[in-house]
Amino acid sequence: MRSYGITDIGRNRNMNQDFIFYSDEPVGMFPNLYIVADGMGGHKAGDYASSFSVERFVQFVREKTDSHLVLVMRQAIETVNEELLEKSESNDDYKGMGTTFVAAVIEDNTMYVMNVGDSRLYVADDKLKQITMDHSLVEEMIRSGGLNRDEARNHPVKNVITRAVGAQKTIMPDFFEVSLYPKEHILLCSDGLTNMVDDDEIMEIIEEKKEVEPIVHKLIERANFYGGRDNISAIVVMQD
User: Fold this and answer.
1) Contact 18, 233 (CB under 8 A)
2) What angle do CA 96, 76, 97 make, to 5 degrees?
3) pLDDT digit string (tens) for 82-136?
4) What are phi and psi of 137, to 5 degrees?
5) Residues in CB range of 143: below 8 A, 6 or more apart
6) What percent of the chain is helix, strand and coil (3-state, nearest 5)?
7) What is the pTM of this model?
8) CA quadruple 41, 43, 45, 48: dihedral positive or negative?
9) Which residues pair with 35 in a beta bridge?
10) Segments in 64-194 forming alpha helices (H)
11) What span, in angstroms and rounded, lies between the C-alpha atoms of 233 and 119?
12) Cα–Cα dist 80/52, whole Å
């Protein structure tokens, strides 16, 4: 297993509210762990939401030793959600903060994925396949037939998400179980990448660069080339 990740401020923002974590080595009972979080909120609140959520999630996982990893992922995100909401409600500077959260763990040839919000996970083999489903207004409009994918890319409410960590008492993460094959690439990213670089170009970059570090650098470079309107985060994992 090989991985590499970068979070970049982009070209239009004064602060980076994204936060990432990646480890090919064990984290507690997990054989590895990869996370992207995209925070939201007022001055410093989004930055705090994403960094706290990732660091607290990792801490929770490190302290657990004896449960199934999907159960631990659920318990961890529920704990993070509860604690982040408490901080939001007790500090005016943090009111209304929240964060997206996408996490993956690979055990043998199976990947366990959890997401809340619109940060994504893709698997790339001969084509790019989005595994996660966005929790967003435009995704709901697409699924109801009121909008197509091309219209959604530039829709005025495309950044409005319907679920976030720290937004309400009950959190509803989605879970996915994916069979992996040798040499496949896995991409976790924030919408600062996918709003700037389309799926076809992402796939072209993966096929051209092949190795995890040059892929990530090229993805960030292209997102900034097209405007870099948001913070940009990407982690690429490759199965040996």
Assistant:
1) yes
2) 10
3) 999 999 999 999 999 999 999 999 999 999 999 999 999 999 998 999 999 998 7
4) -65, -40
5) none
6) 35, 30, 35
7) 0.94
8) positive
9) 21, 103
10) 69-90, 137-143, 149-153, 191-194
11) 9
12) 8
The alpha carbon dihedral of 181, 115, 199, 203 has a sign of negative
Residues making up the chain, counted from first to last: 240
Amino acid at 221: E
pLDDT one-digit tens code per residue, 170-215: 999 999 999 999 999 999 999 999 999 999 999 999 999 999 999 9
Closest listed residue to residue 191, CA positions, set 140, 148, 234, 143: 234
SS (H, E, C) 172-219: CCEEEEEECCCCCEEEEECHHHHCCCCHHHHHHHHHHHCCHHHHHHHH
**Which residues, in sequence order, are CB contacts of 41 under 8 Å at separation 6+?**
17, 48, 49, 94, 95, 96, 97, 98
128-130 sheet: strands from edge to edge: 2-8, 232-238, 185-189, 120-124, 128-130
- Go through 109-136 and write b for each residue having 16 or more CB atoms within 10 A of its CB, e for each that does not: eebbbbbbbbbbbbbbeeebeebbebbb
| pLDDT higher than threshold 80 for residue 234 | yes
Give me the domains of the chain, ranges plus CATH numbers.
2-238 (3.60.40.10)
Residue with tokens 């090989």: 2
Contacts (Cβ under 8 Å, ≥6 apart) of 151: none
User: Are the C-beta atoms of 19 and 51 separated by less than 8 Å?
Assistant: yes
**Three-class secondary structure of residue 171 per DSSP:** coil
